[in-house]
Amino acid sequence: MEARMTVHHQQGTRHFVCTAGEPVAPLLRDAGLLPLPCGLGKCGKCLIYADTAPTDEERSLLGERRLAAGLRLACHTRARDGLEITVPHAGALKVLTQYADMDYVREPLVRRVPLAVGEATLEDQRSDVQRLLTAAQAGGHELTLEELTALPAQLRSGEALAALLHGEKLLGLRPQGTSHALIVDIGTTTVAALLADLDGQRIVAALGERNAQSPYGADVISRIHREMEWEKAGRQGSNPLQAAICRQIDDMLQRLLAESGIQDVDMLSLTGNTTMLHLLCGLPGEHISKAPFIPVTLEPMCLPAQRLGIRSAGRCFLMPGISSYIGADIVASLLAADAHHPQEPFLLVDLGTNAETVLYADGKLLACSAAAGPCFEGATLSCGMAGQDGAIDAVEADAAQGLRFSTIGGAPAQGICGSGVLDALALLLDAGCVDETGRLEAGDSPLGRRIRDDALLLTETVRFTQRDIREVQLAKAAVRAGMEILLQEAGLRHEDVRRLYLAGGFGSAMRPRSAARIGLIPAGLEQRVHVLGNAASFGALRYVSEKGAQAAAAELIRQTRYIELSAHGGFSESYVEQMIFPAA
Amino acid sequence: MEARMTVHHQQGTRHFVCTAGEPVAPLLRDAGLLPLPCGLGKCGKCLIYADTAPTDEERSLLGERRLAAGLRLACHTRARDGLEITVPHAGALKVLTQYADMDYVREPLVRRVPLAVGEATLEDQRSDVQRLLTAAQAGGHELTLEELTALPAQLRSGEALAALLHGEKLLGLRPQGTSHALIVDIGTTTVAALLADLDGQRIVAALGERNAQSPYGADVISRIHREMEWEKAGRQGSNPLQAAICRQIDDMLQRLLAESGIQDVDMLSLTGNTTMLHLLCGLPGEHISKAPFIPVTLEPMCLPAQRLGIRSAGRCFLMPGISSYIGADIVASLLAADAHHPQEPFLLVDLGTNAETVLYADGKLLACSAAAGPCFEGATLSCGMAGQDGAIDAVEADAAQGLRFSTIGGAPAQGICGSGVLDALALLLDAGCVDETGRLEAGDSPLGRRIRDDALLLTETVRFTQRDIREVQLAKAAVRAGMEILLQEAGLRHEDVRRLYLAGGFGSAMRPRSAARIGLIPAGLEQRVHVLGNAASFGALRYVSEKGAQAAAAELIRQTRYIELSAHGGFSESYVEQMIFPAA
Predict the structure, then answer these.
(1) Chain A residues with CB inside 8 Å of B125's CB?
(2) Do B299 and A128 touch (CB under 8 A)?
(3) CA-based radius of gyration for chain B
(4) Which of A171, A214, A273, B318 has its CA 20 to 30 A from that of B531?
(5) pTM listed for this prediction
(6) Contact A283 B148 (CB under 8 A)
(7) What is the average pLDDT across B301-318?
(8) Contact assignment for A323 to B293 by CB distance below 8 Å
(9) CA distances from A326 to A213, B107, B111, B170 (A)
(10) Which pLDDT band holds residue A352 (cuts at 50, 70, 90)?
């Protein structure tokens, strides 16, 4: 009997037509989706998610916890019609290999220290807590009443215990062993989670997912409005936005733990923009969304994970932010860019719906946030799309055809994503098909002949229109005007900037030459681009694993002057100036 | 129609026979049980507890909260058969008048500071928390997520707010106004609660009650055993001992608040012996009860009152202790005795089931706890009883009758309490009816003729027997041996001790001369006795209202060497020596 099977993997989804009852392991291996360490069903490493009845061997190799999380072994799974398989994203994100290589002084914020607590005698009648503090060389503790209640039995159990220390403070007791942390960057669009082994200094596993709040709106403002509606309706039930993100983080943690066979993490380092962290904590975002744009708090926070509904005995460390629109994710990116160590002047830009821009010079920082709108994420363009399979992500000149392009995953072109948009516009400017005011004109060149009905035809269906060009023009003007205001305020010229750090997905994907060609970044700086990739995650890892990073982050924030562009006298003029595209 | 009415008041219970429908206010006033401020039913101050349907005027004068607590106005209450009235204990305990007079530098641990939080503008975009911290001159905060969630609306409400500060730390926001504290001394037998106005430096109201854990056992060991049984039975439901004391404190707080018309307290200062504080927190007492006598913790604790099921937004400050048998109540008594300020050598004794004894000299302290057993509380003596109505509390020589006595409340003698026991034994020793080995012998004197069948007859039914004398002899030997060990260890003689502080109820009630006569205290020190009364409550008040008292308490504890008598080489010898009564 024929069986149709769906396999979700990191790059997308594939469909298989096979015979019911056929083993799925060879199919997955041959499709390059899953390595089979032993291929015999014995090693227990060919993990997949599948809704099947577990075999006895799966039971013994995986254990109840992983089975309950939906994990199965490919070698023990047989095809059936309608079966859906998900291949775990082991070692997915770019940051993965960087951790062990990176050059910084390690000192995890929370660490496990093996304990030898002396026995009580009539000559040494110190309390259990006092003997514990002495053995752990701790200056105090944050044990809850429940933990204190369990302490006498624990100390007398003979178990090999470790103290969980946060600086001088004892947080709790754990079994002796390796300390792990979950690192989460809560982006408005995507949530990235890394499971880090703090002792071995390696990333054990990683996951990236669409933010579960997405159904409530694409951008921070619509999310906040949704949350305000819930408040105005009388706060019935739990806050839906908070519940969505907390459940998602919990779910990602449980899957990462189950996949890695790790019991629990000792801490969670959480970063994200100011709105995302407000929604995570259930704090009202109303005043972030309207002038004068006031967040409830930007301070770092330390909360038990359980307080956020996350099933872990670890503590959540929420990173501090700078303002409503320069959040903890930018602070993290600054740590990733080494801004807490002296260096030559740099610009750091995180391009999304808002372009958060920071100028660093001599240990002082200037920051602003420019509303770019969602066009770089493809949302408002006629054929725009996110950077997924089928998106045109690169466009080049071609003498014969006028242009040639590539798509993500090599799939048939379905639309165009941010990096493709920059390339296409740069190409049009180079060819003189768009003038410096942004007007699109057909012509007799191979490229010019692809312009019809006020649109460049990339394919018969994928078009880049005059209206799209206007959208990009407005966005790039806002972003670039922000940069110019920062440089003006600091009294610096473009050539003084030694590095241009690009954070975030779009920054990593775009070609600097195209960005400079359309004027999104100043001419000349395309040579000085340093792509940080998943900078916020990496900074959040440094925040909890680099010696002195928390104090360094606080100092960076103290040294930052935030410039509210909407209140800046020079912004309108600069914005209009930057509307013009650079001459060839 | 005749109505029988019962009135519970601080000194006991009285029964009234009156006419149904008759106003009760004049009856209570004439019996000296209640002052009537206006006598017209208009001032709302003649508060009583009664189970009656409230009148409209009571509704408007008292408000729903007090009505719900059972409070009524005497001027609006009419007699009916079976009516039970309780007169609130306004201003009961001895400590009442002392607070305002006492000479120490005030600086409450938690204080309300009126706030003026600036409005946010585009030029001042600091977060709500940051503007709040600046306005409060606070260095950090402990606001919960719920409090942070409520903050934006609170700051924008226009309400006159005060910051609740604990040192540099912002604990929360409150309406502007006076700050109150609840002071609780959890004794094994009784619980004393004071409601203190920290700004006005006065005690607003006080309550004293039998510890609600009493049904679970009279002493700490039986309470611990009861708690262990609950643990061993699988910890079903809530811990009954913890629930009893938490409910009792909550109930006392609600009554004190309702009687005083105060909204809430900002903090609670809790003291008590180590077992009582363990049971309060639900911490297992098992290892307190058996060698080597190890408590879970002796550290000070700070908990939200709600964590203990107490309906208050205040914080509980639990005082620190010295050892399993020298608890936070003794630390409080030391503060009451000014031990944190330099003075001449003193002994402090709190006589109960255990005699906690502290010797102070040159800023160093030695402490021990001697098992006196319950005989001073009347429990094990043949006609012993607690210091209640009808207890013989004082016995004197009488040439004709051999002795005369008084009873508490002037009621017919029902038994004898601790102070009476000391007097009676001193009298027998003076008269030679008990020799220095403790043998009771009848004789031909008026006193000697009252000795029959190995017992002194105080009345026909109230007897003080040979066996009772042996009990007292053992108890006084233990207490006194402890004192002698401390003096030996410090290299001091009796005459070096300049003051003998007596803490606790029995210490206040006993006559020092009798105590010295039977050898419970060293001869000569009866001239140097200072009665501290409810020292633990007063010390707990100082702990949260005296500048630097928390650090002072920590330093006192650091300076204290606890001597475990059961492990002390000289104790047995001293114990046997002290068995002998002093010669005349």
Answers:
(1) 292-294, 323-324, 562, 564
(2) no
(3) 27
(4) B318
(5) 0.83
(6) yes
(7) 97
(8) no
(9) 20, 41, 35, 26
(10) confident
Structure tokens at A544: 């909890």
CA distance A17 to A3: 6
| Banded pLDDT at B100 (limits 50, 70, 90) | low
pLDDT band, very low/low/confident/very high, at A387 (cuts 50, 70, 90): confident
Report the alpha-carbon distance of residue B4 to residue A85 in Å, rounded.
82
> If 0-12 CB within 10 Å is exposed, 13-18 middle and 19+ buried, where does residue B236 land?
exposed
Asked if B283 and A148 come within 8 Å (Cβ–Cβ), the reply is yes
The percentage of residues in chain B with a pLDDT greater than 90, rounded to a whole number, is: 72
Return the closest-CA partner of residue A11 out of A87, A111, A77: A87
**CA–CA dist A288, A267 (Å, integer):** 28
Sign of the Cα pseudo-torsion (B464, B467, B471, B473, in order)? positive
User: Which of 301-360 (A) contact B at CB < 8 A?
Assistant: 303, 307, 323-324
- Is residue B410 left, alpha or beta, with left meaning phi > 0 and alpha meaning psi from -120 to 50? left
Q: B500: closest CA among B347, B345, B336?
A: B347
**Quick one: pLDDT band at residue B16, thresholds 50, 70, 90?**
confident
* d(C-alpha A411, C-alpha A226), whole Å: 36
Main-chain phi, psi angles of A510, to 5 degrees: -75, 155
Residue A356 φ/ψ, nearest 5 degrees: -85, 125
Q: Averaged over A223-227, what is the pLDDT? A: 94
Q: What is the mean pLDDT of chain B?
A: 91
How do B560-562 and A391-398 pair as beta strands? unpaired
Residue A484 has φ and ψ, to the nearest 5°, of -65, -40
CB of B420 closer than 8 Å to CB of B509: no
Confidence at residue A218, expressed as pLDDT on a 0 to 100 scale: 81
* CB-CB neighbors (< 8 A) of B303 in chain A: 145
